Amino acid sequence: MKTFGRLNIGVVLGMAVFASTAFAQPEQWLQYHTSREGRASKWLELSTNPPPNVTLPSLNANACFARWVTPMDPAGGRWLCLDRTRKSGPYDRLFIDSNGNGRLDDKTPLIANRRDQYNAYFDATRVVFKGEDGPVTYHLVLRSYQYGDNSPELLVSSGGWYEGNVDLGGRKRRLELIDGNVTGPFNDCSPNAYESDRVALEGDKVDPRFLGRLLEVDGQFFRIEAARDGAFVKIQKADNLVLGQVRVPENISEFTAFGENGHFVRTPVKGGFTLPTGHYRVLGWRIDRKDNKGAAWTLSGYNFKESADFEVTAEKAAAIDVGEPVRAALRAIDRTNNQVAFDLRFQGRLDESIEMLREGQRPRGPQLTLTNPAGTFRYTNSFEFG
Question: For residue 223, how many other CB atoms are within 10 A of its CB?
Fold first, then answer.
């Protein structure tokens, strides 16, 4: 693991600039760390078409190209090229425009440090941006994947994060700031949780939380503001915060929401709890139950869309209709060679995905039986997860 720091030029000037932000609090500086294991990841779209106006190195046949989109670069992104050192096997050679000069021919190729049948893994690679106070360092972790004759894929992860001890109402806690959407900045907040960055706090049962305006710690609310490059945070107690009532069905054991205010997990009491007033989207719910043999089951919902948005106000309780019943959606996919594939999914009231676990494990997959009207044909098969 490596540690880096950002040069702090002009403390007095910096304080004057940040006094005009949402709240004037001293910066609590964090240290930059890197690892081969990415903290968040996403897939990049690959193409065999070379990027326009980018000078390329000498490449082997069937090279692929991708653009990592980042607002930290004035051009809006950096180009990558995925190549092979051998005629077959995983794509194990990588070029990246690490300094943003629009060229790949002047870059030393990265060679995978580890390979298996389908994957090639690369060390964390350094990318440099121009910041207000000088160069800003960022690291990407990349993995190429190819199964059989399918097209190759490229997974990009945030290989660097900031962390340090911060003051929360007089108590020091270890905090990590993570580029959750893998775009370069560390202060992204979006109505879509998975387009937001993340913050992990020592001792927090939610690890990590998506970043919003507020951070809840031991039942107390703090306003949080992160530097764009992640080098520091500013935190202050959120006084005079207005809360609103939320109602869910009484059998909901846990409810999670994310919005402009942040990421909150609630254990409803008779279907009720409070949240800071504002706009939210359901992030998840869970029902805990035991069957007649004493086995513990959980039913949970995840992967919500805009239809799961709701507003919390001080005047009226927000009623969120989640939980049971759930429905099964069976889809038949007609394939060639007289084959039909069946896909079975469980969906919730807001069209969210559903997961069922027994004692923390997936139960045996359901069976599908097909017969013809005459009864002369009968075929039974089991569904598999994944």
Answer: 20
What are the residues whose beta carbons fall under 8 Å from the beta carbon of 380, sequence distance 6 or more? 367, 368, 369, 370
Before 109, cis peptide (omega within 30)? no
33-47, 123-137, 168-182, 363-377: the lowest-pLDDT one: 363-377
pLDDT in tens, 189-222: 998 999 999 999 998 988 899 999 999 998 899 9
Phi-psi bin for 364: left (phi > 0), alpha (psi -120 to 50), beta? beta
Strand segments, DSSP code E, in 112-252 are 114-115, 119-121, 125-131, 134-145, 153-158, 160-168, 171-178, 198-201, 209-210, 214-217, 220-226, 232-237, 243-247
Is residue 314 within 8 Å of residue 243, measured between CB atoms? yes
CA separation, residue 140 to residues 38, 114, 369 (Å): 8, 16, 48
Q: What is the mean pLDDT of the chain?
A: 90
DSSP state of 308: G
Stretch 49-57: mean pLDDT, rounded? Answer: 93
Residue type, 80: L
| CA terminus-to-terminus distance, the chain | 34
CA-to-CA separations, 264 to 147, 168, 213, 240, 280, in angstroms, rounded: 39, 18, 12, 18, 10
Tokens of 376: 């002369």
